[in-house]
Amino acid sequence: MINAIFLGNLTADAKVRDTKGDYKAISFSLGINEKRQNGNDASTFINCTYWSKSNKIAQYLTKGKKILVVADWFDVTEKDGKTYTNFRVRDIKFADSAKKSDEPTPKANEPTPKANDLLDNDDNDGLPF
């Protein structure tokens, strides 16, 4: 298995799909910008899926947020014969350094979510397939 670590910005809000089992598939795409030596910028887009019994984290995976993901690389061959690369996310860390002015501030009586509550990492026993 090939492991990868990516740091990038979400290109859109995460999408949650229900599956036949207890798991939710939370899909998102990361945009990674790179400055080349010749002065040109290059962008790479990474398709990711995070499997979890909870979809709590999806509400925080919004367009433009900077995140770091640890993922396993795998290829999927569709019925039409095309092969796509996807990354099965094992861990997500939020990497934004400061709040943006357009983000709503939590109300005083709302508890701040803890990282462990969001990631719900009790599902490390395998995937539903």
TrEMBL record:
Q: Which domain of life is it from?
A: Bacteria
A Gene Ontology biological process in which this protein takes part is:
DNA replication
- Would the keyword DNA-binding be found if you checked this record's keyword annotation? yes
Lineage, top ranks? Bacteria, Pseudomonadati, Bacteroidota, Flavobacteriia, Flavobacteriales
Show the SUPFAM superfamilies listed in the entry. Answer: Nucleic acid-binding proteins
The protein's name: Single-stranded DNA-binding protein
GO molecular function annotations of the record: single-stranded DNA binding
Looking up Pfam families in the UniProt record yields: SSB
Q: Which organism is it from?
A: Chryseobacterium manosquense
Acidic residues composition bias: residue spans: 119-129
Q: Which InterPro entries match?
A: NA-bd_OB-fold, Primosome_PriB/ssb, ssDNA-bd
